[in-house]
Amino acid sequence: MGGIPDPEWGERVAAAVVLRQGAELDFEGLRSWSKQRLASYKVPSRLLVVDALPRNAMGKVTKRAVAELFKTSAKSD
Q1: Which residues, in sequence order, are CB contacts of 58 under 8 Å at separation 6+?
Q2: Which contiguous run of DSSP H or E holds residue 34?
Q3: What stretches of the chain adopt beta strand conformation (E)?
Q4: Which fold has domain 2-76?
Q5: Mean of per-residue pLDDT scores for the chain
Q6: Deepest in the core among 4, 5, 29, 31, taking most CB within 10 A?
Q7: What's this model's pTM, rounded to 2 decimal places?
Q8: Where are the domains of the chain?
């Protein structure tokens, strides 16, 4: 989970996830699970299911590249 730019709030919490083979996840299910475990301001307002998360040479997820995935998906919606 991380923040994506938002004109109203500055940033919104979003989750980009990679699902296990055969697994399913719906947005309301994620929000329900999150509300039980996280503070309300940490609950994702957007979900993006991807095949793989972008990583750098060290294998760490690159947060800027993840944010770009949300921009790209918004254009294709």
Answers
A1: none
A2: helix 27-37
A3: 2-6, 10-17, 46-49
A4: GMP Synthetase; Chain A, domain 3 (3.30.300)
A5: 89
A6: 4
A7: 0.76
A8: 2-76
